Amino acid sequence: MTRQAWIGPANDVPVVRQCKLAGVSRATHYAQMVARPVDETDLLVSRLIDEEYTRHPFYGSRRMVVFLGKAGHLVNRKRVQRLMREMGLVGMAPGPNTSRKHPEHKVYPYLLRGVPIVRPNQVWSTDITYIRLAHGFVYLVAIIDWYSRRVLSWRISNSMEAVFCVDCLEDALRLHGKPEIFNSDQGAQFTSAAFTGVLEREGIVISMDGRGRVFDNIFVERLWRNVKYEDVYLKGYATIGDLMVGLTQYFVFYNGERPHQSLGDQTPDVVYRTAQGGGAIIIDKFLRAAEEPPVPLRSTGVFSPAKARSEATATAKTKAEPGQRRPAASEVECAA
């Protein structure tokens, strides 16, 4: 939080006194209160970035610059980075660790890898996405049930504050009870005390996606793709009011009419109500490699496979006769 954020009109202390205590000039404070004009070029570029990111979520700012250039828009990387940052978009690819965790926000481990989801309200999940409008953009948050893929609650906001996420969570708890586990990413909205406090109050186990694990919350990511390609991009909403009406109609259709192939062509409403035909599991493809002991276990004398191969190769090298070709590591491994 910046010092400018400390100053607010709702405070009993006069603004002049607040500025003095915060060490911020009044000119700086009042300048931030002036509404900035909408840049139509930024809106156009943001729309193109949003569409391309939905098709290729692994695109970062560099590839977006190339994509925009081919589309006839010469935009530098800094501008693309700023627009992607405002939209909350990050390329799903390994990169330098530029994120900084809030010192007061606790990050919880991911608990769902390899866990079969066999009943409704076993696991809920949430995420935030960017929704474009004709002259601006908003953010959409939704909560879904993993077993049935049913959208339990959703909210839109013109800022990334945690308040609308908390409202969405409270609404889902009020209408549908509570899950055993609640999963989210490590965004500041979901690690905030306001959000995690509601989950702890209800006795819900908290799980959070791992860094770089793009499939940990795959069900919400698929929901965003469906929402944009089946509704937002087709209708091109102009105002927040139009978007509210349109999304209300779409989520009714999504839950109650749209057949889901993963649910045996049933609807989420039917699967959620009957507890039949749903399910999910996040498979860890690297589990076997992770289970191999990285060093010899002194208590058992068992060596890791990598260590055994290394020692076998070294033994083969020492036994080789002068002038004789030394066997390759793969040959030694096959012989063993």
Which features does this protein show?
globular; 14 helices; alpha/beta; 336 residues; Nucleotidyltransferase, domain 5
What does this structure look like?
There is one protein chain. The protein has three domains: 48 residues; 152 residues, Nucleotidyltransferase, domain 5; 42 residues, no CATH class. A five-stranded mixed β-sheet has the order 3-2-1-4-5, sandwiched between helices. The relative contact order is 0.09. It is built from 14 helices and five strands. With 336 residues, it is of the alpha/beta class. α3 packs across α5, α4 crosses α5 and α9 crosses α10.
CATH architecture of the largest domain: 2-Layer Sandwich
Number of strands: 5
List the helices and strands in order. Answer: HHHHHEEEHEHHEHHHHHH
Please tally the helical runs, counting DSSP H or I stretches of 4 or more residues: 14
Widest beta sheet: strand line-up: 3-2-1-4-5
Instruction: Tell me the structural class.
Output: alpha/beta
CATH topology of the largest domain: Nucleotidyltransferase, domain 5
How much of the residues is beta strand, in percent?
A: 5-15%
